[in-house]
Design goal:
With about 325 residues, the chain is of the alpha/beta class. The protein has a single domain, classed as Alpha-Beta Complex (Inosine-uridine Nucleoside N-ribohydrolase, Chain A). It has 13 helices and twelve strands. Helix 1 packs across helix 13 and helix 5 packs across helix 8. The chain binds beta-D-ribofuranose and calcium ion.
Length: about 325
């Protein structure tokens, strides 16, 4: 089986952590490195969370490096209201028992690509600051990327302002650099991630899987679910945004998508950070993005359960 070799650039974050778990569990994915961005929580906390998660998953061999301290232009805005004070509230996680690499995120991304014989896919599940900095500092290495798969943006929806999704809201200037870099892109927008909901009952079922990783995600997802209970969302569970990226790499047939041009507004009065998806080909701009729009939710939940079960002794 040919494996897809990836770097995960994330801001854990409950759903980032779940994306990491799916990547580690899958025989179809080789997780070559993890880099962290400031986003859901401060850069210190997201780095520590990525390392706590890799310690729980017993994958301390995967190199980790911390990245940007702030977005490119805006001050940092975090999402403690969604992910808690630590960024990963809801479960007792082990302290990291290994050290991060003595280099920055963009250096680790560059090193991983330079040293790899196989093509690398960059998966971004937080703000795109590290990805943009990497592309600006190492443009030739950027062009070697097979693809960038990201969770962010939306077509006509918002979860942070009326038309803006959180990851793009935090660093719209970075998103603009990434979206216009000429690298093949796959986007998991809110349109698909809001269909990737897990119910309270399904979260309870995860606790039946008898290993420490499954028990930890039972606690984490119960915490994450609370924020999404507010009636304004109209959800029946919690939307699992970031794992859609890894699920697409594992089983693209689980999704329906449309190819189109996607860019981002950086100067709007009400819309800074809104992704502009040219569904009807009105601009004539090249189609740069495969936009995921639908998911087979049952298959997705089954993938999560099967992945957690791989950690049974
Ligand atoms: C995105 O924002 C973060 O809070 C989540 O981790 C996800 O990446 C959803 O808008
Ligand atoms: Ca995230």
């Amino acid at each position: 089986m040919t494996k897809t070799k990836i770097i995960l650039d994330c801001d854990p974050g409950h759903d980032d952590a779940l994306a990491m778990m799916l990547a580690v569990a899958s025989p179809k994915i080789e997780l070559a490195a993890v880099t962290t961005s400031a986003g859901n929580q401060t850069p210190e906390k997201t780095l520590n969370n990525a390392m706590r998660m890799l310690t729980l998953l017993n994958r301390q061999d995967i190199p980790v490096a911390g990245g940007n301290r702030t977005p490119l232009v805006k001050p940092l805005e975090t999402a403690g209201n969604v992910h808690g004070k630590s960024g990963l509230d809801g479960a007792e996680l082990p302290d990291p028992d290994f050290k991060p690499q003595d280099m920055t995120a963009i250096e680790l991304i560059a090193k991983t690509i330079s040293e790899s014989k196989e093509p690398i896919t960059l998966v971004v599940t937080g703000p795109m600051t590290n990805a943009a900095l990497f592309l600006r500092v190492y443009p030739e290495l950027g062009q070697k990327l097979e693809r960038i798969v990201y969770m962010g943006g939306a077509m006509g929806l918002g979860n942070w302002t009326p038309s803006v999704e959180f990851n793009i809201y935090v660093d719209p200037e970075a998103a603009k650099i990434v979206m216009n870099a000429g690298i093949p892109l796959t986007m998991a927008p809110l349109n698909v991630t809001h269909k990737a909901q897990i119910t309270k009952e399904e979260i309870a079922e995860l606790d039946q899987i008898d290993n420490p990783v499954a028990h930890a995600f039972y606690g984490l997802l119960n915490f994450f679910e609370l924020y999404h209970e507010a009636p304004k969302w109209g959800f029946f569970g919690a939307p699992l945004h970031d794992p859609c990226t890894i699920a697409w790499l594992i089983d693209p047939d689980m999704f329906e998508s449309e190819y189109m041009n996607v860019d981002v507004e950086t100067k709007g009065e009400l819309t800074t950070g809104e992704t502009v998806c040219d569904y009807y080909e009105l601009t004539g701009k090249p189609k740069n993005t495969d936009v995921l729009l639908n998911i087979d939710r049952d298959k997705f939940i089954q993938l999560i359960k099967d992945s957690l079960a791989t950690f049974n002794k």
